[in-house]
Amino acid sequence: MATTTSIEWTEVTWNPVTGCTKISAGCKNCYAARMAKRLEAMGVQRYQKGFKLQTHDDLIDLPKSWKKPRVVFVNSMSDLFHKDVSLSFIKKVFKTMNECPQHTFQVLTKRSDRLMTLAPKLNWTSNIWMGVSVENNDVQDRIEDLRCVPATVRFLSCEPLIGPLDSMNLSGIHWVIVGGESGPHSRPMEEAWVQDILKQCKRADTKFFFKQWGGTNKKQTGRKLNKRTYDEMPV
């Protein structure tokens, strides 16, 4: 069955891949690594190897069993475009997404270079949204890579936002999610960074979603910006 999630911009998660490795500053306090450690301690079978990357062929067809249309975050516990996930396995995941037009699939990666390389070999049906994580100015090149991908919806996840994102080129980018880091050792997010991204989105007519302020108690800090919530989604 699907795993319901508290992530505000999606409905359920589907993890045909679990485990990952860190590649940039945004990965430092990875929530998925923390969760995998807990699941391993609880004796959950799929996490017997902790956060070591694993593919799960038995989960490939899972979305086909869901009758009700759902918004699905693909691989919340991994990265589909990790170098150790074979192209053949990625194609299997895409085949399932292609054959389930009733669902909307949200794929997110930090490996934008591999995404750009493999994109021409994949079938980008309109129900597949493709995003890249962009946590600060150091990784703005991921936006340029994403722009080359023929997805109907292209989006940025600026979470955890750990630095400013100045003068982004949002041409061809349909949606931006912004959020602060949460949990132990979380790094602070400055309001000025968030307000600047909001202004850039307004200028580019790009949908803006503010997920959270973060911190060690994200429920207490909440998700209001300018005394309101921003829940914009691409059409």
Largest sheet: 8 strands, mixed
State which percent range the strand residues make up.
Answer: 15-25%
Number of domains: 1
**If you compute it from the alpha carbons, what radius of gyration comes out, rounded to the nearest whole angstrom?**
17 Å
Taking the alpha carbons of the first and last residues, their distance comes to 27 Å
Number of strands: 10
Low-confidence stretches: none
Number of helices: 6
Structural class call reads alpha/beta
How would you explain this protein's 3D organization?
InterPro entries: DUF5131. This is Phage Gp37/Gp68 family protein. The protein is of the alpha/beta class and 235 residues long. It has one domain (3-21, 28-221). It has helices at residues 31-41, 87-98, 112-118, 141-147, 191-204, 218-221, and strands spanning 3-4, 12-14, 17-18, 54-55, 71-74, 104-109, 128-133, 153-158, 175-179, 207-212. The strands form 2 sheets. The protein has an 8-stranded mixed sheet. A hairpin with a 7-residue loop joins strand 1 and strand 2. The longest helix has 14 residues, at 191-204. It is globular and about 45 Å long. The two termini are 27 Å apart. The model has no long low-confidence stretch (mean pLDDT 97).
Helix and strand layout, with pairings?
Blueprint: E1 3-4, E2 12-14, E3 17-18, H1 31-41, E4 54-55, E5 71-74, H2 87-98, E6 104-109, H3 112-118, E7 128-133, H4 141-147, E8 153-158, E9 175-179, H5 191-204, E10 207-212, H6 218-221
Parallel strand pairs: 2-5, 5-6, 6-7, 7-8, 8-9, 9-10
Antiparallel strand pairs: 1-2, 3-4
